[in-house]
Amino acid sequence: MIILLTLLFALSADAKPRARQLGVPFAGTPGPLNAITDVAGVEVGHATLIKGEAIRTGVTMLFPRGRASDAPVFAATFALNGTGEMTGTAFIEEYGVLEGPVALTNSQSIGTVRDAVSQWLVREKKWDLCCLPVVAETFDGYLNDIHGFHVRPEHVLAAIGAASSGPVAEGSVGGGTGMVAFHFKGGIGTSSRRVGNYTLGVLVQANMAGKRQLTIAGIPVGERLAAASERDGADSGSIIILIATDAPLLPHQLKRLARRASLGLARTGAISGDTSGDIFLAFTTATPELVPLSSGREQRMLAPKMLPNEALNPLFEATVQAVEEAIVNVLFAAETMTGFRGRTIEALPVPRTLEILREHKRLSISP
Protein backbone atom coordinates (compact mmCIF):
# COMPACT_ATOMS: atom_id res chain seq x y z
CA MET A 1 0.00 0.00 0.00
CA ILE A 2 1.18 3.48 -0.77
CA ILE A 3 1.00 5.47 2.43
CA LEU A 4 1.77 9.15 1.96
CA LEU A 5 2.74 10.56 5.34
CA THR A 6 2.36 14.32 5.32
CA LEU A 7 5.06 15.74 7.56
CA LEU A 8 3.85 19.17 8.44
CA PHE A 9 7.28 20.72 8.93
CA ALA A 10 8.33 19.77 5.40
CA LEU A 11 5.73 21.00 2.94
CA SER A 12 6.92 20.81 -0.65
CA ALA A 13 8.33 23.94 -2.19
CA ASP A 14 5.83 23.74 -5.03
CA ALA A 15 2.76 23.79 -2.77
CA LYS A 16 -0.17 25.61 -4.39
CA PRO A 17 -0.67 29.27 -3.44
CA ARG A 18 -3.36 29.75 -0.83
CA ALA A 19 -6.46 31.84 -1.48
CA ARG A 20 -5.19 34.86 0.44
CA GLN A 21 -1.91 34.82 -1.52
CA LEU A 22 -3.90 34.96 -4.76
CA GLY A 23 -5.78 38.06 -3.66
CA VAL A 24 -9.00 36.62 -2.23
CA PRO A 25 -9.96 39.16 0.45
CA PHE A 26 -10.55 37.91 3.98
CA ALA A 27 -11.23 40.07 7.02
CA GLY A 28 -8.98 39.93 10.06
CA THR A 29 -5.27 39.47 10.66
CA PRO A 30 -3.93 35.90 10.48
CA GLY A 31 -1.07 34.51 12.53
CA PRO A 32 2.34 33.84 10.94
CA LEU A 33 1.29 30.49 9.47
CA ASN A 34 -2.41 31.29 9.01
CA ALA A 35 -3.01 27.86 10.56
CA ILE A 36 -4.37 26.32 13.72
CA THR A 37 -0.78 25.65 14.76
CA ASP A 38 -0.37 29.40 15.32
CA VAL A 39 -1.92 28.59 18.70
CA ALA A 40 1.15 27.64 20.72
CA GLY A 41 1.31 23.95 21.60
CA VAL A 42 -1.10 22.69 18.94
CA GLU A 43 0.31 19.93 16.73
CA VAL A 44 -1.26 18.34 13.64
CA GLY A 45 -0.30 15.22 11.68
CA HIS A 46 -1.71 13.39 8.66
CA ALA A 47 -1.55 9.88 7.26
CA THR A 48 -2.80 9.79 3.65
CA LEU A 49 -3.80 6.44 2.10
CA ILE A 50 -3.88 6.12 -1.69
CA LYS A 51 -3.81 2.77 -3.48
CA GLY A 52 -5.01 1.78 -6.93
CA GLU A 53 -8.37 3.28 -7.80
CA ALA A 54 -10.24 2.10 -4.70
CA ILE A 55 -8.50 3.63 -1.68
CA ARG A 56 -8.65 7.38 -1.08
CA THR A 57 -8.78 7.97 2.67
CA GLY A 58 -6.70 8.63 5.76
CA VAL A 59 -6.39 10.02 9.28
CA THR A 60 -5.66 13.46 10.71
CA MET A 61 -4.56 13.89 14.32
CA LEU A 62 -4.63 17.10 16.37
CA PHE A 63 -2.98 17.42 19.78
CA PRO A 64 -4.14 20.50 21.76
CA ARG A 65 -0.98 20.69 23.92
CA GLY A 66 1.31 18.65 21.72
CA ARG A 67 1.91 14.91 21.56
CA ALA A 68 4.15 14.90 24.63
CA SER A 69 1.52 16.35 26.99
CA ASP A 70 -1.24 14.45 28.75
CA ALA A 71 -2.81 17.54 30.35
CA PRO A 72 -6.48 18.11 29.43
CA VAL A 73 -7.87 21.40 28.18
CA PHE A 74 -11.20 23.12 28.71
CA ALA A 75 -13.46 22.36 25.73
CA ALA A 76 -17.01 22.37 24.39
CA THR A 77 -18.85 20.98 21.37
CA PHE A 78 -21.80 22.06 19.26
CA ALA A 79 -23.74 20.14 16.61
CA LEU A 80 -25.35 22.40 14.02
CA ASN A 81 -26.79 19.29 12.37
CA GLY A 82 -26.21 15.89 13.89
CA THR A 83 -26.19 13.48 10.96
CA GLY A 84 -22.64 12.52 11.80
CA GLU A 85 -20.47 11.35 14.66
CA MET A 86 -17.89 12.71 17.06
CA THR A 87 -17.07 10.27 19.85
CA GLY A 88 -16.35 11.49 23.35
CA THR A 89 -18.76 14.44 23.24
CA ALA A 90 -20.84 13.22 26.20
CA PHE A 91 -17.71 13.32 28.36
CA ILE A 92 -16.86 16.83 27.16
CA GLU A 93 -20.42 17.97 27.82
CA GLU A 94 -20.32 16.58 31.35
CA TYR A 95 -16.83 17.69 32.45
CA GLY A 96 -16.07 20.61 30.14
CA VAL A 97 -12.65 19.17 29.32
CA LEU A 98 -10.99 17.43 26.39
CA GLU A 99 -8.52 14.69 27.30
CA GLY A 100 -6.10 13.51 24.64
CA PRO A 101 -6.01 14.23 20.90
CA VAL A 102 -8.75 14.72 18.32
CA ALA A 103 -8.78 12.43 15.28
CA LEU A 104 -10.51 12.94 11.91
CA THR A 105 -11.24 10.12 9.47
CA ASN A 106 -13.99 8.58 7.32
CA SER A 107 -17.36 7.37 8.59
CA GLN A 108 -16.60 3.64 8.57
CA SER A 109 -13.18 3.97 10.20
CA ILE A 110 -14.23 5.86 13.30
CA GLY A 111 -14.18 2.70 15.46
CA THR A 112 -10.77 1.56 14.25
CA VAL A 113 -9.28 4.99 14.85
CA ARG A 114 -10.88 5.28 18.28
CA ASP A 115 -9.47 1.92 19.35
CA ALA A 116 -6.01 2.71 18.00
CA VAL A 117 -5.92 6.05 19.80
CA SER A 118 -7.02 4.34 23.04
CA GLN A 119 -4.29 1.73 22.71
CA TRP A 120 -1.68 4.41 22.05
CA LEU A 121 -2.79 6.43 25.09
CA VAL A 122 -2.60 3.36 27.34
CA ARG A 123 0.73 2.25 25.93
CA GLU A 124 2.19 5.73 26.41
CA LYS A 125 0.77 5.76 29.97
CA LYS A 126 -1.10 8.98 29.29
CA TRP A 127 -4.33 7.55 30.68
CA ASP A 128 -4.32 5.05 33.54
CA LEU A 129 -7.97 4.06 33.69
CA CYS A 130 -10.59 4.98 31.08
CA CYS A 131 -10.01 6.13 27.51
CA LEU A 132 -12.76 8.09 25.73
CA PRO A 133 -11.01 9.49 22.66
CA VAL A 134 -12.54 12.13 20.42
CA VAL A 135 -12.80 10.88 16.84
CA ALA A 136 -14.91 12.65 14.21
CA GLU A 137 -15.90 11.57 10.71
CA THR A 138 -17.19 12.63 7.34
CA PHE A 139 -18.21 10.32 4.48
CA ASP A 140 -15.69 9.72 1.68
CA GLY A 141 -17.55 6.87 -0.03
CA TYR A 142 -17.80 8.52 -3.44
CA LEU A 143 -14.05 8.43 -4.08
CA ASN A 144 -13.05 5.81 -1.52
CA ASP A 145 -14.04 2.16 -1.02
CA ILE A 146 -15.34 3.13 2.39
CA HIS A 147 -16.80 -0.30 3.18
CA GLY A 148 -13.38 -1.87 2.67
CA PHE A 149 -12.28 -0.56 6.09
CA HIS A 150 -8.83 0.35 4.79
CA VAL A 151 -7.74 2.53 7.69
CA ARG A 152 -5.68 0.39 10.07
CA PRO A 153 -4.13 1.05 13.49
CA GLU A 154 -0.71 1.52 11.90
CA HIS A 155 -2.09 4.44 9.89
CA VAL A 156 -3.32 6.09 13.09
CA LEU A 157 0.13 5.65 14.60
CA ALA A 158 1.66 7.15 11.47
CA ALA A 159 -0.52 10.25 11.79
CA ILE A 160 0.39 10.50 15.48
CA GLY A 161 4.06 10.21 14.60
CA ALA A 162 3.74 12.93 11.95
CA ALA A 163 2.14 15.42 14.34
CA SER A 164 4.11 18.64 14.74
CA SER A 165 3.77 22.37 15.01
CA GLY A 166 4.43 24.43 11.93
CA PRO A 167 2.68 24.63 8.53
CA VAL A 168 -0.35 22.37 8.07
CA ALA A 169 -0.83 20.52 4.79
CA GLU A 170 -4.22 21.23 3.21
CA GLY A 171 -6.50 19.72 0.59
CA SER A 172 -6.58 16.00 -0.19
CA VAL A 173 -4.56 14.85 2.81
CA GLY A 174 -5.17 12.83 5.98
CA GLY A 175 -8.80 12.42 6.91
CA GLY A 176 -9.73 14.73 4.04
CA THR A 177 -8.14 12.62 1.29
CA GLY A 178 -11.38 11.42 -0.28
CA MET A 179 -13.71 14.25 0.67
CA VAL A 180 -15.87 16.40 -1.61
CA ALA A 181 -17.00 19.97 -0.87
CA PHE A 182 -19.43 22.02 -3.00
CA HIS A 183 -19.12 19.19 -5.56
CA PHE A 184 -15.45 20.09 -5.96
CA LYS A 185 -12.57 18.24 -4.38
CA GLY A 186 -12.66 18.88 -0.62
CA GLY A 187 -10.57 17.89 2.37
CA ILE A 188 -8.53 19.62 5.09
CA GLY A 189 -8.16 23.37 5.52
CA THR A 190 -6.93 25.72 8.20
CA SER A 191 -6.66 29.40 9.10
CA SER A 192 -5.96 31.61 12.11
CA ARG A 193 -6.55 35.10 13.50
CA ARG A 194 -4.76 37.38 15.90
CA VAL A 195 -7.14 38.88 18.47
CA GLY A 196 -5.28 41.42 20.57
CA ASN A 197 -2.83 39.41 22.68
CA TYR A 198 -4.52 36.13 21.77
CA THR A 199 -4.55 33.74 18.83
CA LEU A 200 -7.43 31.68 17.46
CA GLY A 201 -7.02 28.91 14.90
CA VAL A 202 -9.37 26.67 12.93
CA LEU A 203 -9.00 23.28 11.24
CA VAL A 204 -11.79 21.89 9.04
CA GLN A 205 -12.52 18.60 7.32
CA ALA A 206 -14.87 19.78 4.59
CA ASN A 207 -17.18 17.37 2.78
CA MET A 208 -20.42 19.31 2.32
CA ALA A 209 -22.71 21.48 0.21
CA GLY A 210 -23.87 21.76 -3.40
CA LYS A 211 -21.94 23.50 -6.17
CA ARG A 212 -24.43 26.32 -6.75
CA GLN A 213 -24.23 27.25 -3.07
CA LEU A 214 -20.52 28.10 -3.15
CA THR A 215 -19.87 31.69 -2.12
CA ILE A 216 -16.36 33.17 -1.95
CA ALA A 217 -15.70 36.70 -0.66
CA GLY A 218 -19.44 37.35 -0.81
CA ILE A 219 -19.71 36.45 -4.51
CA PRO A 220 -21.96 33.52 -5.65
CA VAL A 221 -19.10 31.81 -7.48
CA GLY A 222 -20.87 28.46 -7.59
CA GLU A 223 -23.71 29.84 -9.68
CA ARG A 224 -21.20 30.95 -12.29
CA LEU A 225 -19.19 27.72 -12.22
CA ALA A 226 -22.14 25.33 -12.45
CA ALA A 227 -23.10 24.36 -15.99
CA ALA A 228 -26.59 25.36 -17.06
CA SER A 229 -27.52 21.70 -17.58
CA GLU A 230 -25.91 20.56 -14.33
CA ARG A 231 -28.24 19.13 -11.72
CA ASP A 232 -28.04 21.14 -8.52
CA GLY A 233 -26.65 18.71 -5.95
CA ALA A 234 -28.10 18.67 -2.47
CA ASP A 235 -26.22 19.93 0.58
CA SER A 236 -25.92 16.40 1.91
CA GLY A 237 -22.33 16.08 3.11
CA SER A 238 -20.70 17.00 6.40
CA ILE A 239 -18.03 19.20 7.96
CA ILE A 240 -16.03 18.91 11.15
CA ILE A 241 -14.66 22.19 12.54
CA LEU A 242 -12.04 22.35 15.29
CA ILE A 243 -11.35 25.71 16.98
CA ALA A 244 -8.30 26.34 19.15
CA THR A 245 -7.42 29.44 21.13
CA ASP A 246 -5.04 30.57 23.84
CA ALA A 247 -7.58 33.04 25.21
CA PRO A 248 -8.65 32.19 28.79
CA LEU A 249 -12.18 30.86 28.41
CA LEU A 250 -14.37 28.56 30.47
CA PRO A 251 -16.34 25.68 28.89
CA HIS A 252 -19.60 27.61 28.62
CA GLN A 253 -17.75 30.37 26.75
CA LEU A 254 -16.12 27.80 24.46
CA LYS A 255 -19.57 26.48 23.58
CA ARG A 256 -20.56 30.00 22.58
CA LEU A 257 -17.42 30.12 20.43
CA ALA A 258 -18.19 26.75 18.82
CA ARG A 259 -21.65 27.96 17.82
CA ARG A 260 -20.10 30.84 15.85
CA ALA A 261 -18.48 28.35 13.49
CA SER A 262 -21.97 28.09 11.97
CA LEU A 263 -21.73 31.67 10.75
CA GLY A 264 -18.38 31.12 9.07
CA LEU A 265 -19.82 28.04 7.36
CA ALA A 266 -22.81 30.08 6.18
CA ARG A 267 -20.50 32.70 4.64
CA THR A 268 -19.33 30.04 2.17
CA GLY A 269 -22.93 29.33 1.13
CA ALA A 270 -23.48 26.00 2.91
CA ILE A 271 -26.89 25.59 4.55
CA SER A 272 -26.24 22.54 6.75
CA GLY A 273 -28.61 20.30 4.81
CA ASP A 274 -30.86 17.59 6.19
CA THR A 275 -28.29 14.79 6.08
CA SER A 276 -25.27 16.95 6.84
CA GLY A 277 -23.21 16.14 9.94
CA ASP A 278 -21.86 19.52 11.03
CA ILE A 279 -20.13 19.10 14.39
CA PHE A 280 -17.79 21.63 15.97
CA LEU A 281 -15.35 21.52 18.88
CA ALA A 282 -13.62 24.44 20.58
CA PHE A 283 -10.85 24.30 23.18
CA THR A 284 -8.43 26.61 24.94
CA THR A 285 -4.83 25.97 25.85
CA ALA A 286 -4.92 28.79 28.41
CA THR A 287 -6.26 26.60 31.21
CA PRO A 288 -3.99 25.53 34.06
CA GLU A 289 -2.27 22.18 33.77
CA LEU A 290 -5.35 20.10 34.50
CA VAL A 291 -4.80 16.59 35.86
CA PRO A 292 -6.37 13.83 33.73
CA LEU A 293 -9.55 12.77 35.50
CA SER A 294 -8.75 9.06 35.12
CA SER A 295 -5.17 9.29 36.35
CA GLY A 296 -5.74 8.70 40.04
CA ARG A 297 -3.23 11.45 40.79
CA GLU A 298 -3.85 13.96 43.55
CA GLN A 299 -6.22 16.69 42.49
CA ARG A 300 -5.55 20.30 43.43
CA MET A 301 -7.58 23.45 43.68
CA LEU A 302 -7.66 25.34 40.40
CA ALA A 303 -7.99 29.05 39.85
CA PRO A 304 -8.61 29.35 36.09
CA LYS A 305 -8.90 32.77 34.55
CA MET A 306 -11.63 33.80 32.14
CA LEU A 307 -12.35 36.75 29.92
CA PRO A 308 -15.53 38.62 30.79
CA ASN A 309 -18.38 37.65 28.51
CA GLU A 310 -18.61 41.18 27.15
CA ALA A 311 -15.05 40.79 25.82
CA LEU A 312 -15.86 37.79 23.60
CA ASN A 313 -17.08 39.61 20.49
CA PRO A 314 -13.61 39.86 18.90
CA LEU A 315 -13.15 36.10 19.38
CA PHE A 316 -16.59 35.44 17.88
CA GLU A 317 -15.65 37.55 14.88
CA ALA A 318 -12.28 35.81 14.54
CA THR A 319 -14.00 32.42 14.58
CA VAL A 320 -16.35 33.39 11.76
CA GLN A 321 -13.48 34.82 9.71
CA ALA A 322 -11.13 31.87 10.23
CA VAL A 323 -13.78 29.24 9.49
CA GLU A 324 -14.68 30.95 6.22
CA GLU A 325 -11.05 31.18 5.12
CA ALA A 326 -10.21 27.63 6.18
CA ILE A 327 -13.03 26.27 4.01
CA VAL A 328 -11.94 28.33 1.01
CA ASN A 329 -8.36 27.15 1.60
CA VAL A 330 -9.58 23.56 1.26
CA LEU A 331 -10.88 24.27 -2.23
CA PHE A 332 -7.78 26.15 -3.38
CA ALA A 333 -5.45 23.39 -2.14
CA ALA A 334 -7.26 20.24 -3.28
CA GLU A 335 -6.42 18.57 -6.60
CA THR A 336 -8.69 16.76 -9.04
CA MET A 337 -8.99 13.12 -7.96
CA THR A 338 -10.17 9.92 -9.64
CA GLY A 339 -11.02 7.14 -7.24
CA PHE A 340 -13.43 4.32 -6.45
CA ARG A 341 -15.13 2.83 -9.53
CA GLY A 342 -13.41 5.38 -11.75
CA ARG A 343 -15.33 8.31 -10.30
CA THR A 344 -13.70 11.71 -10.71
CA ILE A 345 -14.17 14.90 -8.72
CA GLU A 346 -12.70 18.02 -10.26
CA ALA A 347 -10.78 20.56 -8.25
CA LEU A 348 -12.11 24.08 -7.98
CA PRO A 349 -11.06 25.87 -11.21
CA VAL A 350 -8.95 28.49 -9.47
CA PRO A 351 -8.15 30.68 -12.52
CA ARG A 352 -11.83 30.92 -13.43
CA THR A 353 -12.76 31.59 -9.80
CA LEU A 354 -10.27 34.45 -9.62
CA GLU A 355 -11.62 35.81 -12.88
CA ILE A 356 -15.15 35.88 -11.44
CA LEU A 357 -13.93 37.64 -8.30
CA ARG A 358 -12.00 40.12 -10.44
CA GLU A 359 -15.14 40.90 -12.44
CA HIS A 360 -16.83 41.80 -9.15
CA LYS A 361 -13.79 43.84 -8.02
CA ARG A 362 -13.24 41.46 -5.11
CA LEU A 363 -9.56 40.68 -5.54
CA SER A 364 -7.11 42.53 -3.31
CA ILE A 365 -4.22 42.24 -5.79
CA SER A 366 -3.95 42.82 -9.53
CA PRO A 367 -3.41 39.90 -11.95
Q: What's the arrangement of secondary structure elements?
A:
Blueprint: E1 2-6, E2 43-51, E3 55-63, E4 73-82, H1 89-95, E5 97-98, E6 102-106, H2 110-123, E7 134-138, H3 153-162, E8 180-181, E9 184-185, E10 187-195, E11 198-207, H4 221-225, E12 238-245, H5 251-267, E13 277-284, H6 313-333, E14 337-338, E15 344-345, H7 350-359
Parallel strand pairs: 6-7, 12-13
Antiparallel strand pairs: 1-2, 2-3, 3-6, 4-5, 4-13, 8-9, 10-11, 11-12, 14-15
Helix pairs in contact: 2-3, 5-6
SSE string, helices as H and strands as E: EEEEHEEHEHEEEEHEHEHEEH
Strand content: 15-25%
By secondary-structure content and strand pairing, the structural class works out as alpha+beta
The gyration radius over C-alpha positions equals 19 Å
Number of domains: 1
